[in-house]
Amino acid sequence: xxxxxxxxxxxxxxxxxxxxxxxxxxxxxxxxxxxxxxxxxxxxxxxxxxxxxxxxxxxxxxxxxxxxxxxxxxxxxxxxxxxxxxxxxxxxxxxxxxxxxxxxxxxxx
Amino acid sequence: xxxxxxxxxxxxxxxxxxxxxxxxxxxxxxxxxxxxxxxxxxxxxxxxxxxxxxxxxxxxxxxxxxxxxxxxxxxxxxxxxxxxxxxxxxxxxxxxxxxxxxxxxxxxxxxxxxxxxxxxxxxxxxxxxxxxxxxxxxxxxx
Lengths: 109, 142
Known about the structure:
The structure holds two protein chains of two kinds.
Chain A: E1 7-10, E2 14-15, E3 19-27, E4 49-56, E5 59-66, E6 75-82, E7 86-94, E8 99-108
Parallel strand pairs in A: 2-8
Antiparallel strand pairs in A: 1-3, 3-6, 4-5, 4-7, 7-8
Chain B: H1 5-13, H2 15-18, H3 23-28, H4 31-41, E1 46-48, E2 52-55, E3 59-62, E4 66-72, E5 75-82, E6 89-95, E7 99-107, E8 113-121, E9 126-137
Parallel strand pairs in B: 1-9, 3-9
Antiparallel strand pairs in B: 2-4, 4-7, 5-6, 5-8, 8-9
């Protein structure tokens, strides 16, 4: 795929215990749907991010199964409760088997 | 929509269940759509409303990136479908304990159509909701 796949996430650095925070994630990816044709009329094979997950201290928070109908540069916004200080880790799984990862620390106090 | 022989039989066979579904749904639901919902619910019946909210624009200028949000108190999973795309599936959200049962994303809509959400509640029941989005420029790279 064209361009480098780069995840970007926005997570507050600090939170109060039990606070509900909003997390925004974006990953640069073409999300080639498998419906488009090139100049010669051949189908361009599908290549999308098919799964996104977020986990807090190893415990899954949210998982999303994506279909080609999710826009390019898939964006997700969700909310979660922060029980304690820890690390939130994000993974994106590509059709080609690549796994892209990012993580952010949240301090409670 | 195309009413195939198969879906016609399905409708005929499921009169009892169809009676619970309002006209809007039975009118738009294609066979692929029914299959996608059945795969998610395991054949269980989804009722309307019930606290499931779809946040979507009434008119989307660009079908390539339509912002939508879903939210349902007490939901563990939410399936999102679009009935006018080449295939109905859009995304499925799975919410664990720490997550609030709401999320937003951006989706592709090929043309003016209904965005449909089905939520699996923590008590095992299913609710559904639909929202029509008018699309000015389609979003499937046509």
